[in-house]
């Protein structure tokens, strides 16, 4: 049984299933009808959500402030595809392993593998102490790791055989190619206004007409300043830079992705090295200092890898991070009301005394993807789409997925609410707070 604050209100809106619901024609100044479903922000989160809904027959309107999709955190030319694992089993690990399998499944099902340059070359995660055996990885000795990588790893490792890397920018561009997705670029959201009947709301854009929307999902990275009550969501931008170095010899000496404190992603002619992690700076210029930090990281990770210095190119952006490194997924809570309802939960009263989580009508969020969004975005999008449409669509075993029993059963958003609920930080604060 879910705790009251982990119970989201049901969405019941037949409009979401109506393919002929108005879209382009409602974007005029004098519009009288509303867009059934808007998504604001076209990075991995927004593009996956748009595509997954479109594949289910739902028309979506995707608004992006930049002139193209994926020019921010998702603009990377390369990122690792591998689940995050912990030494002892945890619900966080279950979520990431499910997300990893789900990503591989959807890349294949939507025929996106070549469009995003997916290379299933395997990922070695270097480890310095023993991990238990698991269905998600194999434990390799230092010798076996070196053989797999083609170069000395100086360490034992966990091998994720069906991991690899892809180009997130190319993936986003491929995801939005669907007739049910209307992409509106150059639309920068500046605010939201409620409507009198509370069935819809108005999205305000800089230098553009406003748009009336019934359901709006915010997939804007850390730029959530226009959401009422955002001070209850501890989302912090963390700058990251990737650097690219050419190999000294023309042939690629590295067979797979290698991941430690830094990571190395091999291409034919060189290696992407990532990534810096910096909460102090919020600019996105590529800097020599960060190239140097990546270079030092690479020398520590793979001392025998011969590359040319300096870096020939790089990419920098801001990740949207949460304190527990898990995404924020679900309806946007009504934080004021939630404080009133759950203000005394630290006293340990029976849970029957509390109402389900109060939420802001028609507003949802998919964010806080941090350093792991390539892997987690599609599963988050799938869970949210199930929630919006009132369906729970399991992934059948016949898809060839290798999901553990405990994870396969959970495809409802409420099932993951204890982990992903946007209200979880407020609830934790209320549980701790002194009278
Ligand atoms: C250097 C670096 C390396 C990384 N490496 C990996 C990796 O190896 N593996 C991995 O899994 N993940 C990795 N990540 C993380 C991953 O890239 C992110 O988690 C993911 O891209 C986040 O996607 P997003 O859609 O939430 O955010 P974004 O890509 O930032 O998208 C948000 C979008 O919203 C738009 N937007 C913002 N405000 C508004 C507004 N007001 N109106 C309209 N539009 C708006 C933005 O322009 C942007 O397009 C890395 C990230 C970085 C920076």
Helix-strand pattern:
EHEEHEEHEEHEEEEEEEEHEEHEHHHH
How much of the residues is beta strand, in percent?
15-25%
Rg estimate, integer Å:
22 Å
CATH topology of the largest domain: FAD/NAD(P)-binding domain
CATH uppermost class of the largest domain: Alpha Beta
Low-confidence stretches: 24-31, 396-409
How many domain units?
2
Shape designation: globular
Q: Output the structural class.
A: alpha/beta
Bound molecules: flavin-adenine dinucleotide
- Mean pLDDT comes to 90
Identify the notable features of this structure and list them briefly.
globular; 23% strand; binds flavin-adenine dinucleotide; 25% helix; 18 strands; D-Amino Acid Oxidase, Chain A, domain 2; single chain; 2 domains; 8-stranded mixed sheet; alpha/beta; FAD/NAD(P)-binding domain; 435 residues
Protein model, in words:
The structure is a single chain. The chain is an alpha/beta fold and 435 residues long. The chain folds into two domains: 4-73 and 172-234 and 324-432, FAD/NAD(P)-binding domain, CATH 3.50.50; 123-161 and 236-316, D-Amino Acid Oxidase, subunit A, domain 2 (D-Amino Acid Oxidase, Chain A, domain 2, 2-Layer Sandwich), CATH 3.30.9.10. Helices cover 25% and strands 23% of the residues. The strands form three sheets. Strands 1, 2, 8, 9, 10, 11, 17 and 18 form an eight-stranded mixed beta sheet that branches. An eight-stranded mixed beta sheet has the order 5-6-4-13-14-15-12-16. Helix 1 crosses helix 7 (373-389) and helix 2 (91-109) packs across helix 7. The chain is globular, with a radius of gyration of 22 Å. 48% of the residues are buried. Residues 24-31 and 396-409 have low confidence and may be disordered. Flavin-adenine dinucleotide is lined by residues 40-46, 63-66, 71-74, 76, 79-80, 168, 187-189, 219-221, 223, 240-242, 274-275, 317, 319-320, 367, 369-375.
């Amino acid at each position: 049984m879910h705790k009251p604050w982990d119970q989201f209100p049901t969405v019941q809106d037949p409009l979401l299933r109506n393919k002929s619901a108005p879209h382009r024609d409602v974007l005029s100044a004098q519009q009288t009808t509303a867009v059934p479903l808007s998504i604001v922000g076209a990075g991995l989160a927004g593009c996956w959500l748009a595509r997954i809904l479109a594949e289910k027959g739902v028309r979506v309107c995707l608004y992006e402030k930049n002139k193209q999709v994926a020019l921010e955190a998702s603009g990377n030319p390369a990122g690792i595809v591998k689940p995050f694992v912990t030494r002892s089993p945890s619900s966080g690990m279950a979520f990431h392993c499910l997300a990893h399998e789900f990503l591989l499944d959807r890349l294949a099902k939507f025929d996106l593998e070549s469009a995003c340059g997916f290379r299933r070359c395997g990922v070695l995660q270097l480890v310095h102490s023993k991990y238990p055996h698991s269905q998600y990885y194999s434990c390799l000795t230092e010798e076996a790791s070196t053989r797999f990588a083609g170069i000395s790893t100086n360490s034992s490792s966990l091998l994720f055989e069906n991991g690899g890397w892809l180009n997130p920018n190319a993936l986003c561009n491929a995801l939005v190619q669907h007739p049910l997705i209307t992409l509106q670029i150059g639309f920068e959201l500046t605010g939201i206004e409620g409507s009198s009947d509370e069935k819809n709301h108005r999205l305000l854009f800089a230098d553009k007409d406003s748009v009336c929307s019934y359901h709006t999902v915010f997939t804007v990275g850390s730029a959530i300043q226009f959401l009422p009550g955002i001070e209850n969501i501890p989302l912090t931008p963390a700058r990251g830079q990737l650097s690219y170095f050419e190999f000294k010899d023309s042939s690629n000496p590295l067979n797979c992705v290698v991941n430690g404190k830094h990571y190395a992603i091999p291409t034919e002619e060189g290696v992407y090295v990532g990534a810096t992690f910096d909460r102090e700076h919020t600019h996105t210029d590529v800097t020599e200092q960060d190239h140097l930090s990546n270079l030092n990281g690479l020398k520590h990770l793979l001392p025998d890898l011969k590359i040319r210095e300096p870096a020939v190119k790089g990419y920098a952006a801001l990740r949207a991070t949460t304190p527990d490194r898990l995404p924020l997924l679900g309806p946007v809570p009504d934080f004021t009301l939630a404080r009133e309802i759950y203000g005394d939960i630290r006293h340990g009263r029976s849970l029957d005394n509390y109402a389900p989580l109060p939420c802001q009508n028609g507003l949802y969020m998919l964010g806080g993807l941090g350093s792991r969004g390539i892997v987690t975005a599609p599963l988050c999008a799938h869970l949210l789409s199930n929630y919006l449409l009132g369906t729970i669509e399991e992934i059948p075993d016949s898809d060839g997925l290798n999901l553990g029993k405990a994870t396969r059963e959970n495809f409802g958003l409420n099932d993951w609410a204890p982990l992903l609920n946007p209200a979880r930080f407020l609830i934790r604060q209320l549980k701790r707070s002194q009278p």
